[in-house]
Amino acid sequence: MRFLKKKLIWLVSALILAVGLVGFNLFSSSASEDKLVVAFLDVGQGDAIFIETPNGIQALIDGGGSNRVMLELGSMMPFGDQTLDLIIATHPDKDHIGGLIPVLENYEVEKILESPIETDTKVFGLLKDAIIKEQGGRVFAEAGDIIWLDQPRSVYLKILSVGGVGKKTNEAAIVAELHYGETEFLLTADIGALTEAELMKNWGAEIDTDILKVAHHGSRYSTTSEFLELASPAIAVISAGAKNPYGHPHKDMLGRLEKLKIPVLGTYSEGTIIFESDGETISRLKQ
Fold first, then answer.
1. How many Å apart are CA 28 and CA 56, to the nearest integer?
2. Structural domain contains residue 266
3. Residue 15 carries which DSSP code?
4. Residue 236 resides in a domain
């Protein structure tokens, strides 16, 4: 992991900057390129992460709060491609699942992975209806699950947390680490300091990562210094809307990143942020 971070590549204006695992295989696929694409989509104030594996398996983690995700998917996927292999709804807040409703209505989805936490909100009811109508395979996440996206290329998601009974929806969100070769992306949804502390206790150095999706859009109450020191990301990505009413990302959280000299990229200023991994190095791609 450490040698990998020294080789992290930035392609910005053509310049380089500064297990025997037990799980379940969701998909089969055919050989193609050797690159994993991970895109943090610009959906305003919300989260949406598009993944395409070397063998062409496509996954969407959350969908933001509106139809905006449809435009972003259209820019990432080939014209006429209306299929997704996997959708993950990390938790039932509108800014994560609202955009999944039109996706389910317009795309053929093979598998849907959800947090077991439910709410009585209108948007969650609409999502449940869309899932039932889609008739895709429905799976509820559990901590420790291994979700194989591209088994021949060893691309998988490891579920680190799905919260617990009595937790608020943010703390009960699905936390996953995406692995490809020696590269890792830690995807933390909207968790706060409570769940971060549990992750450190339960997984220790396993949360060490290359790219960290900062929790809860850069909230003041997430991304503690202790968590950052253990995760030690080379890059932190914040998904948040420009000039959003919540003040995300909060200056205190940004200060913690700055103190540890962790570079930050935000969808609120950069738009969609795309990375490409060959299993050894990670490059940033410009649209």
1. 10
2. yes
3. B
4. yes
